[in-house]
Amino acid sequence: MINLHADWVPADIVAKCKVTLEFCCAEKQPGNSSSSNPGGSSGPMPYMWCGQLRRTIDLLDDDDDKTHLATIAFFRCGVFVVSACAKVSQSLDNTVGPHTSGGGGSGAGGNVVEESWWAPHAKVVRVGEPEEQ
Question: Taking every pair of C-alpha atoms in the chain, what is the biggest distance, in angstroms?
Answer without folding.
Answer: 63
